[in-house]
Amino acid sequence: MNAETDVITVGDPMPVIASLDHLGGHTVRITWAEGPRTGITEDVDLGQIIDRYRIYAPLANESFFVSGRLVEDGNVLRWDASPDPIEMAATTIEHLAQLAELDHMSAEQFRAWFKRHGFSYDAGADALGISRRLIAYYLSGEKEIPRTIALACTGYDTITRSAA
Questions:
Q1: Could you state, in order of their start, the residue ranges of all structural domains in the chain?
Q2: Calpha distance 27→65 (Å, rounded)
Q3: Is pLDDT at 15 greater than 90 in this prediction?
Q4: Does the structure show a pLDDT above 80 at 2?
Q5: CA distances from residue 83 to 67, 86, 121, 133 in whole angstroms, order as listed
Q6: Is the peptide bond before 83 cis (omega within 30 degrees of 0)?
Q7: How high is the mean pLDDT of the chain?
Q8: What is the pLDDT of residue 163?
Q9: How is domain 107-163 classified at the architecture level of CATH?
């Protein structure tokens, strides 16, 4: 074992943002490069955190908000303010995306969750306590995924992560 070259991994990989687009208001379109949401593109409203924390108050100005850019290899969203820049970690943005997901989980997000666990239709149905037919509807996007299923997916992730 060589302390200089060995890599120790603890927990899930940190979220990294691959791309960022401003959509208007305080909403950004994020594509995730690494972490639990890898490969997912989603719209995230940063308004609630801007309203909640004084440090982000300057971002209420939409013309300043759109100047945000990715830095530190996608780990941070930064706005260059004087005298100090304002930064928001990718982990914070991921947390907001997770909260929003509970209100509306897309078929893409459900497919990513399904694939992450390597489920067959039957195994996914058993894990969520629903029918195989509903799994097919949700994966195809034919039916909207209810909040209860989004919560069940989050709970399943939490339980399996803590058991590992």
A1: 16-89, 107-163
A2: 10
A3: yes
A4: no
A5: 16, 10, 54, 57
A6: yes
A7: 89
A8: 67
A9: Orthogonal Bundle (1.10)
- DSSP lists the bridge partners of residue 44 as 28
More confident of the two residues 112 and 6: 112
Helix (H) or strand (E) holding 149: helix 147-163
Residues 6+ apart with CB under 8 A from 125: 131, 132, 134, 135
* Per-residue confidence (pLDDT) for residue 81, from 0 to 100: 81
Asked if 19 and 69 count as a contact pair (C-beta separation under 8 A), the reply is no
Over residues 75-123, the pLDDT tens digits come to: 999 999 878 899 999 999 998 988 877 777 889 989 999 999 999 999 9
> Cβ atoms within 10 A of the Cβ of 85, count?
11
Dig out the tokens for 29 from the structure: 């379109």
pLDDT at 164 (0 to 100): 60
Q: Computed from CA positions of residues 55, 58, 62, 64, in that sequence, does the dihedral angle turn out positive or negative?
A: negative
CATH class (in words) of the domain with range 16-89: alpha beta
Buried (b) or exposed (e) across 31-70, using 16+ Cβ within 10 A? bbbbbbbeebebebbbbebbeeeeebeebeeeeebeebeb
- One-letter amino acid for residue 86 of the chain: I
The amino acid at 79 = W
